[in-house]
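Transmembrane protein 161A structure dump, as promised
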Amino acid sequence: MALMGIQLVVSLLAASIMQRMAPHCSFARWLLCNGSLFRFKHPSEGELCALAGKLIPKPSKRDRRQNGENKPLTVPKDIDLHLDKTPVNALDALVLRFFLEYQWLIDFALYAAGVFLFTEIYGTVVDTSKEVNIGAIWCVLTVLFSLRSLHTLMSHYFRSDEGGERSVCLAFGFLSLLVAMLVLVVREDYLEFGLDSGFASAFDNLEVFAKQQGYADWSIPVTKLTVKLGLAAICAFIGALLAFPGLRLAQTHLDAVQLNSDRPLIQMCLHIGFLSPVIIVLLWIKPIARDFLANAPMGKTSITLVSSEAFDSVRLWVIVTLCVIRLLLTRYHLQAYLNLAQKWVEQMKKEAGRIATIDIQRKVTRVSCYLTVVTLQYLIPILIILFSTLAFKALGEFSWGLYPDQTPGVTPALFIPTPAPVLPVVGLEDDEDGAEDPEEDIQATVARLTEAFAALRTVLTPLFFRGFFAFLTWWTAACQVISSLFGIYFHQYLMQN
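structure tokens r here:
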């Protein structure tokens, strides 16, 4: 059976290796604990009092009876405080917030990339047109798990006593709903997602399939407006999820650029990584991307830089390259975030008055406690864009080659085969107790799964997947552009005023 081919074997092997190797060898744990990240240790009360030039007072029994508890120990804000830093190790990482969720998601994404790479190489050697693309399934699962992790983080904001984070998420959600409704009415001559043709193809195929199953009078009670309203609601939800990752990206980008002021090459890569969502957004604007490259103006004439047939492959390579660049810049952004502790201390020194020692310790410790949260906020948008692009390539049946043999975007005529009945295997009989043979049950199950996937492939054609994953990739990048640019404005102007 095609379903029980080598792709499924490799997929099950990858899942087994991930489960067994996670406690011993984890890429997510290595990313934080490889010795390249340094956190700042909070000072003790003795060190703060020594800097303030006084001893730690010992409260009397009378003070404890009157106040019920010790008064907080305070020190001047302008003390000469310098934080000690130490590498982040495995013991530090295990106590961080959401560390287990972070470790599982990043490791799953790594194995998903490995399975996808294997299926791509396997597809160049063997004809896999009749097999289920297991690598694409792993990519879709990675996108879903990434959205679930963002939802977990946003739920934490909604459960918080402070209402500021909740208001920010709701504001970005309503803003994303408005922008999505505007985008969905733009003609495909300008935004070439292919949503209209993709959904129309899926609905037509579903009606044909229903009639073949005996439902002659059945029709889909869904209009084009209903579909776009539902898609706009999903876009609003994604926009709310990506609000704080974009704001955090703006803050870490500004700090990372300042931290590497003496390294112009790193600064250039940081700017490219920050502007990569803008580039991805422009790649789907037809007059700017496809039409310009196919007919680039050169004086009174025009030249063809990239043919329209090869543009889809070029777009895939550009998006994957930009995502890889952003992944390679992870350490610079995380270290810029960890340096917020020292940055806050330097800001405190410029203020007048006194501050409780416990507040200093909390401020410094809180930065390192949220390291995995910041890491998820930085990596998850990249993973969504990367794996939705990989699913766009695999399920949309595009090619990595810059000179494709056939024009992408042409879907063959619909042909829905009639499912063949499952026949019993000759030579296998029931045993004396009347129990069915296990091998026959397995083959019957595989046959039913094969029929289900065949029916699904006839309804959800490559034309549908191209439109859906193209829009998902573009919308994720657009949300990052909106939230990160607002974050730049907030940190550069509003925070300084």
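Confidence is low (pLDDT under 50) at residues 63-68, 406-432.
lmk if u need the other ones
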